[in-house]
Amino acid sequence: MKKSDILTSVGLLLGIVLMIYGMLIGSSLMIFWDLSSVIITVGGSVSALLITYTLEEMKNMGKLFVQAFKENKSSGKDIIVKFTSISKKARREGLLSLEDDLSEMDDPFMKKGLQMVVDGIEPETIREILELEIGEMENRHEKGAGIFLAWGAYAPAFGMLGTLIGLIQMLANLTDVANIASGMGKALITTFYGSLLANIFCNPIASNLKQKSAKEVGEREMILEGILAIQSGVNPRIVEEKLITYLPPKDKLEYLNNSIENGEGVVI
Questions:
Q1: Which of 29, 45, 57, 68 could disulfide-pair with 154, CB 3.0 to 4.6 Å?
Q2: Membrane-spanning regions, if any (predicted)?
């Protein structure tokens, strides 16, 4: 289940608003507008992306952009609670009893892993299959973030190219004051557009996607460990203890404190 990532929206809007405010102080927004500079910077960088990536990969850019504004509702603490409950049932009623719970699981990765446990597949095979799935997901996410990283690299480069075009035009018309002003404007504005596109949009979106991917990979590794622990039939407290090691220090302390308050002490 996904929910809106408020900080991403706030960060992007705040960056745009502050940039516009800074541009408005002592000047008009219109002096920052130049159509040819937009064509060179945006059009040129997008054309470079078309050369770099396939059509299918480019089609995913819209979905990736939307993904940056969403985050997974689940957390490491939720995963521990879920697996602690499942391990208790498996220990009490046997692994086959878990089949009744599979239809209620929202996470397809967890559902797939536990289904293999119920089907009696060997632990080594389960680990191999699920690790391959995690690796493929990580590669897919890395490629998606890479599109925005590449765009963030191309945009300033084409901004610099526009600067060179403006300077050439200016130097070719030193006797015409109007052309000198036009060439200098293009020289500066294309660099501005390239830096703006890269640093307020492309690079932050790429970093956002990479951070979300790392979080999802960590959660899936945690789920894999829980699945194998349940299959091995270890004590539910040991399952819980293994999964707690995946939590950041702050979340770990909070989870332990909540467990103590609820009278569910954890082996430490």
A1: 45
A2: 12-32, 38-55, 147-172, 184-206
Q: How far, CA to CA in Å, does 46 sit from each of 59, 125, 141, 237, 255?
A: 13, 43, 20, 53, 46
Question: Residue 256 and residue 268: Cα distance in Å, rounded?
Answer: 9
Q: Is the pLDDT of residue 17 over 50?
A: yes
CA-CA distance, 19 to 21, in Å (whole number)?
Answer: 5
Residue whose C-alpha is closest to residue 155's, from 37, 41, 32: 41
Strand partners, 229: none
CB 17 within 8 A of CB 200: no
CB atoms within 10 A of CB 225: 18
The Cα–Cα gap between 209 and 65 comes to: 9
Q: Pick the range with the lowest mean pLDDT from 51-55, 97-101, 149-153.
A: 97-101
pLDDT digits (tens, 9 = 90+) for 35-61: 989 999 999 999 999 999 999 999 999
CB 80 within 8 A of CB 240: yes
CB 45 within 8 A of CB 155: yes
